[in-house]
């Protein structure tokens, strides 16, 4: 947290509307994403956050406004270069698994990029090692858990060494254990490789781990700030249809009851530590 | 469910045939289909039998898999045998009862045609039993590669096949889930008259179709985002390796062909 890198992705007044719909799905959205940060984009269903993800990957193109990736504008001509820079992990673990085995799937993106076979083999091995799936090289997808499949998807992205990874609701279909595996893998990649992470989610507990948060509502940016700033909005978030994480709720209820807690707590651990401190002072 | 649906499925084993290049096996089966029609007497059929048995022995595939493969066509074999037995009127008359007349030529022909059928089934089963579907796809892709000149979308067809193969277990799982969900709502899949059982399949197929289309759409988006734009400029991760034993296999089938030409009458 804290020190911010250079701007890696920049959105300028981006507008997008789906055919046959009256309202803009994304309505004059502008923000910047900085190198090496974890940015969470949160919002209720239909807030435009998934459309935003597709725009960032050139799967959709804005009606007006510009998207700049490393100062280059994202257009039909540059889209394939941009996709090398920005990897995407989708929601459904099954529907993004192209290969018949784990290593074939990781190699898929490399094959598309025309990487020579020798290099492919080392890259596939490295990427699977990074996500801790190297013992499953020849495993078929239906023998893997959801979390494992998502880690393979991450390996497929990592093998192409992009600068940005977008997680588009990537943990929403996983059980708590799978979710933990995936988020832990992403955290480690950030630390080791300095990749920028954009996680698009409606799960505020996942967003609480981010460095910065953007709250989307009805296609526009509602609020931008650190998770601590954002969670201070409590009631407003609830009215947007977002669910406040349990430790945040508990912490604020305790404060309402007159218990002297200095700040808002994002994780169980923080809250427990502060409570222990409080008790020891009593 | 899996066992019933995928007949002639891959049987893993450590044999010479398993380790061969799928291309050599495909070429062998392709040539075998033609070569077997050259056989027309006892000596030539014996040669084909020796060849087939040698392949079976080398493949180390348990005999019960081959017998299972023969079962579905047994009726067909029996039918052609009887057809030849009763209607080929060549050679000496062996047996006569009322209108039924059996000639030695008919008996001979019946046995030969049945054997031809059985050998064909055994050899093609050996191909699918010793080669994983995916390497079979790879083999077909490289063998058909020259047809690209005539605008045949070889790469796309191979990718379609490999994606279908990859999704078979996923869709079976889903079918199972939908069946349970519909059974919980009172649909009877396994009892009742045939018509109502057939009607019960509709609420199974429709959700399956809908979800397959959804999957296809999501998969297409994922593939595009991972940089897929057709076969052009693509490299391959899986490598086929043609070794000396592959050449031997192709030579063996050629020699069988030559021998049959020599010994046939």
Q: Quick recap of the structure?
A:
The complex is a heterodimer of chains A (282) and B (265). Chain A is an alpha/beta fold and 282 residues long.
Adjacency order of strands in the biggest sheet of chain B: 1-2
Low-confidence stretches of chain A: none
Number of strands of chain B: 2
Shape descriptor of chain A reads globular
What CATH architecture of the largest domain in chain A do you see? 3-Layer(aba) Sandwich
Beta-strand content of chain A = 15-25%
**What kind of sheet is the major sheet of chain B?**
2 strands, antiparallel
Mean pLDDT, all residues of chain A: 88
Helix content of chain A: 25-40%
Order of helical and strand elements of chain A: EEEHEEHEHHHEHEHEEHHHH
What is the CATH class of the largest domain in chain A?
A: Alpha Beta
Q: Give the oligomeric state.
A: heterodimer
Number of strands of chain A: 10
Major beta sheet summary of chain A:
6 strands, mixed
Order of helices and strands of chain B: HHHHHEEHHHHH
3D architecture notes:
The complex is a heterodimer of chains A (282) and B (265). Chain A has helices at residues 49-56, 79-85, 102-112, 117-130, 146-158, 176-193, 204-207, 227-231, 235-239, 246-256, 268-281, and strands at 7-16, 26-34, 38-43, 64-69, 72-73, 86-89, 164-168, 196-201, 212-217, 220-225. In chain A, a hairpin with a 2-residue loop joins strand 4 and strand 5 (72-73). The longest helix of chain A is centred in the middle third of the chain and has 18 residues, at 176-193. Chain A has 282 residues and is an alpha/beta fold. In chain A, helix 3 packs parallel to helix 5. Chain A has 2 domains: 7-244, Rossmann fold (3-Layer(aba) Sandwich), CATH 3.40.50.300; 245-282, no CATH class. The model of chain A has no long low-confidence stretch (mean pLDDT 88). Chain B has 265 residues and is mostly helical. Chain B has 2 domains: 2-131 and 242-263, no CATH class; 146-225, no CATH class. Chain B contains 10 helices and 2 strands. A two-stranded antiparallel ribbon of chain B has the order 1-2. In chain B, strand 1 and strand 2 form a beta hairpin. Chain B is flat. The model of chain B is unreliable at 1-7 (pLDDT under 50). The A-B interface holds A 54, 57, 59, 80, 83-84, 87-88, 90, 92, 94-101, 103-104, 107-117, 120-121, 124, 140-142, 156-157, 160 and B 134, 162-163, 165-166, 169-170, 173, 214-215, 218-219, 221-229, 233-239.
